[in-house]
Structures are given as C-alpha cells and as structure tokens.
Write a structure and sequence with these properties.
The complex is a heterodimer of chains A (308) and B (249). With 308 residues, chain A is an alpha/beta fold. Chain A folds into 2 domains: 3-165, Rossmann fold (3-Layer(aba) Sandwich); 190-307, TPP-binding domain (Rossmann fold). Helix content of chain A is 25%, strand content 28%. Chain A contains 8 helices and 16 strands. In chain A, strands 5-9-4-1-2-3-10 form a 7-stranded parallel beta sheet, with helices on both faces. The longest helix of chain A has 14 residues, at 93-106. Chain B has helices spanning 37-51, 68-78, 94-108, 127-135, 188-194, 235-245; strands at residues 2-6, 9-11, 33-35, 57-64, 82-87, 112-116, 138-149, 152-159, 162-169, 172-176, 199-202, 215-221, 230-231. Chain B has a 9-stranded mixed beta sheet with strand order 9-8-7-10-6-1-4-5-11, sandwiched between helices. In chain B, α2 packs across α5 (188-194) and α3 packs across α4 (127-135). Classes of the chains: A alpha/beta (308), B alpha/beta (249). At the A-B interface, α3, α4, β5, β7 and β8 of A face α3, α4, β7, β8 and β9 of B. Chain A: Heterodimer of an alpha and a beta subunit. Chain A: Its cofactor is FAD. Chain A: FAD binds at residues 201, 226-227, 240-244, 257-264, 278.
Chain lengths: 308, 249
Amino acid sequence: MPILILADHDNATLKPATAHAVSAAAKLGSDIHLLVAGRNAAPVAEQAAKLAGVAKVLLADDAAYEHALAEPVAALLVSIASGYSHVLAAATSVGKNVLPRVAALLDVAMISDITAVVSADTFERPIYAGNAIATVQSSDPVKVVTVRTTAFEAAAAANSAPVESVAAVADPALSSFVSAELSKSERPELTAARIVISGGRGMQSGDNFHLLEVIADKLGAAVGASRAAVDAGFVPNDYQVGQTGKIVAPELYVAVGISGAIQHLAGMKDSKVIVAINKDEEAPIFQVADYGLVADLFKALPELQQAV
Amino acid sequence: MKVLVPVKRVVDYNVKVRVKADGSGVETANVKMSMNPFDEIAVEEAVRLKEAGTATEIVVVSVGPTQAQETLRTALAMGADRAILVQTDVTTEPLAVAKVLKALVEKEAPGLVILGKQAIDDDCNQTGQMLAALLGWGQGTFASKVVAADGKVAVTREIDGGLETVELKLPAVVTADLRLNEPRYASLPNIMKAKKKPLETVTPDALGVDVTPRLKTLKVTEPAKRQAGIKVPDVATLVDKLKSEARVI
C-alpha cells in the first residue's frame, strides 16, 4: 500500500521540511503520495510534484484548509487514510498539531518525531529530550508518524509527478482562524539554514542581537536563541532552539553566550560543526563544541564580523 | 465552568536520566519524580481562570501508579479543588490516556480541558490532540495565551513562524506551551490544606478503558556521544579552522 504525506506550506510555498519527510518515507519502500490541503494552493502542488520519489500529489483546495486548522485537515486525512499503510508528516507545528488527531480518529498509536526508519513498522525516536533513543514497533494497520527533519536529508527536486484533485470533506466547524503574527525576516528559516548563529543570556539585551545579525547576514545564516534569551525577552519565541523550541542540525552552529543547558543541547547537538564562544571556560557548551573560544563576546563578535 | 486538568508524574527535569544496562528503558527507581513542567503551567492557567471568575471548579486527573497521588496533591496545593487518580501500573501510551480522559470528561462534563503540550519523559506531544479528536472537540495546541468568554475560547498558539490565534467553540481542549504563564509555588498553608482536599481513586477497568500498550519498545539505548573538540586562542584562529579544517564557511 502507498504512503501518504501531509505537506506543510503557506498556500504559496512548500516548506522545506516536507522534502525531509519524503526522504524518510522513501526508506519505507512504497509509493509516496503527497497531500496538499490548502486554499488556492496549486503552486504548492506544483512544487510538491517536483520532489524525487513522489508518485502522486493530491490537492484538496478549499477555504477550510487555508490555515491548516487541525480539525478540518484531520477529517480530510482520515477520509482517505484507509488506502495507505502509513500517514506521515514533518514534525513541524502543523504536523505535530494534526497527526495525533488523525491517529486517535483512526484508533491507532502514533509515533512522534522519528530519527531513523528501521523497517516499515519499526522506528527510532528520541525520548527524555534526546538523552535516550527508543526503538519502537507498531502493529497497527496504519502507522501514523511524524518525522524529525534534521535526521533525514531533503529529497531533491527532480521529478514531475501528476497532480490529482481530491474533494474536501465536511468541516467539523469547531475552530476558526483569527490572526497570525509571523516574524518577518530576510534570513533563511532556522530549521532549513546551512549555518545558524544563536545567542544566549550572555547577549544581555535584545539590541545586542544586532551583533549576531550582521555576522549572520555576511554568512547567509539564520539567527537563533537559547530559552534563557527568549525568556528574558531579548527575541521572540520562534527564535528558540532547544527541546521545547526548534530542533536544528545545520552544517555550522555558532553558540554565543550560551551556557549549554541540556534543554538547549537537545535542539542542536546533531549539528555537523559546533562553535562555542563564551567567557566562562567551564560552560557545558564547550563539552559538545568542535571549536571553543573562551572570550568576551562583545570583543569577539566585532572581530568575527571583520574576519568572515 | 468546570475545568479539567490532566497531570503526569515524570522524572524531574533536573535529573540526568540513565539508560538501563539491559536496554529495557531508563532508570526510574530512586529517582526524583515531579509534575510534568508543562502540566504545571496548565494547572496554573486553570487556577488563574478560577481567580478571574471564569472557572468555577478545577478537577485534576492523573493516570498512573499510586505515587501519582503526590503529583495530584501538588496540583491541589497550587489551587485545584479535587483530584482523581486513575490507578494503573501499566506504562500508558497517549492514546490510552486520551481514552481514560474521555471517559472522565463524559462523567465530569467540564467546559474546558487544559493540559501540557508534551510530557518530558516520552516527548510524545499527542495526548491533548487525541483527546480532542475522541471527544469531537476543537483543539488549541501550544498555547501562549488563553481567553475564554461567551462560549468560546481564543487561543494564541506558538507556531513555527511566530504566533497564531484561533477561536474554538467550547467545550475544547487546550495544550499549554512554555510561555503561557509562570507557575506559582505552593505555600505551606496551601500544602497543608491540600491534604484535606478530596482525592478519588478509580481504575481504567472501572471506566471501561483498555490501557494495554499498542507499541512495542524493542530497546532503549544511549544516544551517540559527541566528543569535545579543541579550544582556539582567538577569533583569527577560529575563522582559519572553519575555513581550512572544517570547510563550513
């Protein structure tokens, strides 16, 4: 039976996270169908059709799906799930919101945030903030799974799969969208960036994040933050890297003024190269850093800006 | 409006967990246990709703072993009115917990269920969404603000790109994210008072719910360890290493 993946998008652009979920699905060894549920989302379906390994794109175009509200999107997924062995989504805020609802409606267990596919019914997933890895097996008829995007490469854009329309199902009308306040940034998205530069409590103020931003712009990097910096109000919550924030695994992660609490390490320790800049040489961040610089960040950052 | 708050007893967030040598799980014997931090935020939110006059009664529920009574007493000390322990020694999965909670919701008829977005032990992030699904209710997950009025609740949610506000018909399920509030510490007089608050014990069987796990945990292992690298003396050396050795910039 084929595999169904729920695409994450904003009705104009397919989120990079979905390409990672496609790679995870490719390891299961069946045909992959990608569901795009949105409003006027044909451009997204076109982008989805280009992902390598996708056999078919299903487009459900209806006003009810414009904001990816869990209730109507779950109802749609459940209406078509019976023809599939697996229902997958990237573990983004949409996937995490919608898929447990789908699993409960199908009366099956759900497997969250997988980091490896062992076989079609067996998966690895982190527990205790990544301090242990559980291997779990499901015997349910449909496996409902979210995928940790950093654990799988992105599927390449080298395909032209057919796009098929699917009918919308009745909206349960339990919820409605009111408003969104999205952070506007020219920089790459945290979870998709090749380089991430993050600041912690050591930055001392939100204004000082400017020191990171100028370097980020030179390197084409995204800017992140520790929970401490977010809690202190330096930057908005969507900057947060960590167990309860975003999980990132860029090629280069630069931690500036971050002590390295377990909860932060859980969000970045799979990065390829880690750099830590901290004036406290005992800071736990140095235990995971490939390159550590014990220095006052207010002196080191301007130097770094000059040198890159 | 009655508010139901499910809470979970988990390994305290400050404990560095150790994987058991036989790979069957993590060591939980003789380890400090506490209320799941996100559930503490949920209890706090319910207490604030009661203080604001929106909620009239707060019922806290835990599904777990006898010792989960301590977790319930903590919630009672924070301001909940009464507690229900659904006693089981089975390691319950989110779907089973959602089914137990559904049975209790049908008995208690709350206008709102608030719980943590995720437990910090299994990191599933499923129970609230599953409960909403089983009840046919709306769900407001990852909440950073909750405003209930006129048969509706507006929930501001932490999403990948920022914040989003949705409006749900009541009754509904809300899951608490980190920045919804800062939970209070229970005062000594309130801890004493909590000992006298009602705590009822039931079993999943009595509620007609089968809590047998669906998933099989084949093994639990330690994650790959990351080795500490080198210290560099200055920014120039750092940039040089990143360019010529790591080749990432």
